[in-house]
Structure formats: C-alpha cells, structure tokens
Design goal:
It is found in: Secreted. Keywords: Secreted, Signal. Its main location: secreted. With about 200 residues, this protein is mainly β. It has 2 helices and 13 strands; from the N terminus they run αβββββββββββαββ. A hairpin with a 4-residue loop joins β6 and β7.
C-alpha cells in the first residue's frame, strides 16, 4: 500500500511540474503589461512576438504584441531548444518594420518584448523615396540589426494591390530576413549584400 501511495505521489509531482505556465496577452497598442498566465498543453513552450510596421506615407504606425503558449513544432523560425530570441528588421525607405520572436521554457518567462531599433549602425544602402520612383538612388542609413543591403528584383508577375507595381525594391535588412527570404518568390528575386551601396543594379 505504501509503495502504491509513493508511486501516486511521485507521478502527481512530475505531472504538476511538467505543466508549463506562460503569460497570455494580445495588444494592438504595443503594451502587453499583464500578469495573466495560462497553463500550456504538452509539447508547448512559452513564446512572445512583437511586430512593428511603419508607413508614414499612408499614416501607418502599428505595433502588435502577443504572448502565449506556442507549439514546439511551430517554433521553426527560432530553431530553439530552450531559450532563444530572434530579430527580423527591414527598411525599404518608404516603409520599415521589425519583428521580435522569443521562446523559453520556464514559468511566465515570455515577458520580453522588442521595439523597432532606430539607432544607425553605419551601413548605407540604396533605396526609393516613393512608390513611383523609376530610379532608386537615394541613400538610406541602416539601423539596429539591419546589417545587409537588400534588393528585390521584380519578375513579370503582377500582384494586385502591390504598391510598387512591377518596380524593384531596395533598402536595408537584417541577416535573419536575408536568410529566411526565398531567393525567388512572387515578389521577385531577393538579393542581399554586406557592403555600402552594394545593392545597386
């Protein structure tokens, strides 16, 4: 009887410690100040995302934050085992934005958030001043994690509601954007380089 009781208590202990608690919040104001947590299902870890997009020409200034349990198999953007943080950041002159992804595996650890880093890092890339520019030769100062010059060379495919039409796109991007972007997509051929003004076509 004592053996069964000991096994029951031991199994209850392991079940209780295996249920991870994560903060839960969704905010379109960029302010996730919460103490509310949720109990995660098995094979889930804690995650947080901060997404910022700015388009001054269209009066867009959005920052969204989300904290929740995430399925471990959906964590491919981080490729994490325990705790990891990853920034995606790009600026194509007309609009710019960033995304922070964070995951961790202890209770309520997903409080971390990240905002667009506007500190110049010294790299300069070519960009466009407007959606209608035929030649993009303006010089853009890259900021934060944007350590590559970016060019997206448009193909013959036309995308409705795409503000650039069939024009090329130039600007700054983080290594994470360059590594994750497919070399050929519906948006065009993506090229990244490391030197000043190297994204000249």
């Amino acid at each position: 009887m004592k053996l069964f009781l000991a096994l029951y208590l031991l199994s209850s202990y392991f079940c209780s410690v295996s249920m991870l608690q994560c903060l839960k919040c969704y905010s379109e104001s960029g302010q996730c100040n919460t103490t509310i947590s949720e109990e995660c299902e098995p094979e889930h870890i804690c995650g947080s995302m901060t997404y910022s997009l700015f388009d001054p020409g269209h009066n867009v200034n959005n920052t969204v934050q989300k904290l929740e349990c995430i399925r471990r198999s959906n964590d491919d953007l981080l490729n994490t085992v325990a705790t990891d943080v990853l920034f995606y950041s790009a600026n194509v002159g007309i609009l710019y934005g960033s995304m922070l992804l964070f995951s961790c595996e202890f209770d309520n650890c997903n409080r971390i958030v990240g905002l667009y880093n506007s500190t110049p890092n010294g790299l300069k890339c070519l960009t466009c001043d407007s959606y209608s520019d035929e030649v993009c030769n303006s010089i853009l100062s890259c900021v934060g994690y944007q350590d590559h010059c970016l060019s997206v060379i448009r193909t013959n495919i036309s995308i409705s509601m795409w503000p650039w039409g069939n024009k090329n796109i130039f600007g700054c991007a983080s290594k994470t954007v360059c590594d994750r972007a497919p070399k050929t997509s519906i948006f065009g051929e993506v090229h990244c380089c490391l030197d000043d003004l190297c994204n000249r076509v």
